[in-house]
Amino acid sequence: MGPYNIDIRTAENCGPKSGEGLVFDPHIKKINRSTFILDAAIQTSVDYDDSMTLLVDMALFTNNGWKENYYKQSFPKACTVTKFWGGELFKELMKRIGVKARCPIPKGNYTVKGWMLKLEVPSIPVWYYNKYRWRGTVSKDGHTVGCLGAIVDVVPKKNH
Q1: Where does the source fall among the domains of life (predicted)?
Q2: Mind listing the pLDDT tens digit for each residue in 94-128?
Q3: What is the dihedral of CA 47, 19, 93, 89, to 10 degrees?
Q4: What structural domains does the chain harbor?
Q5: Burial track 105-132 (b if 16+ CB lie within 10 A, e otherwise)
Q6: DSSP string, 92-134
């Protein structure tokens, strides 16, 4: 446990593949230990707003495989929560897709190209080193409308 970098192994859409809801098509290219290039297509047939709930679900990789429900929490007001926890990352994403960094995020088709991305969570300065499977599932009225998943390594931060 300690200061860390987040190394993205994979990112994927884990919700609807097309049609209604929030559909993500992320492509990650690793530049170095903590920097990545993101290209993504995002199709939304609904506004991303505070009538939705965000469920964050993390699994921990162990010698016996994935330990499910390592961390699981449901957040009402999905858009506001995403904006708060996303911080500068959220603002930059909104800039890149051409919408104002506020809630709700209007439905539409968005593209992100060549975003040099460095994942940092300043509000969580230390974390346990390991491999994690992360899923953020968005629901409205009890129905899943979108999901974005990733497998990441949390590794010790290198001092430069």
Answers
A1: Eukaryota
A2: 999 999 989 999 999 999 999 998 777 777 788 89
A3: 90
A4: 4-156 (2.70.220.10)
A5: beeeebebeeeebeeeeeeeeeeeeebb
A6: HHHHHHTS-SSSSBPPEEEEEEEEEE----TT---B--EEEEE
CB atoms within 10 A of CB 19: 8
Closest CA to 154 of 132, 122, 134, 124: 132
User: Taking CA 7 as the corner, what is the angle to CA 13 and CA 39, rounded to the nearest 5 degrees?
Assistant: 45
Per the listing, tokens 């559909």 go with 23
Closest residue by Cα to residue 96 from 150, 41, 44: 41
Q: Are 153 and 5 in contact (CB under 8 A)?
A: no
Longest dimension (CA), the chain: 47
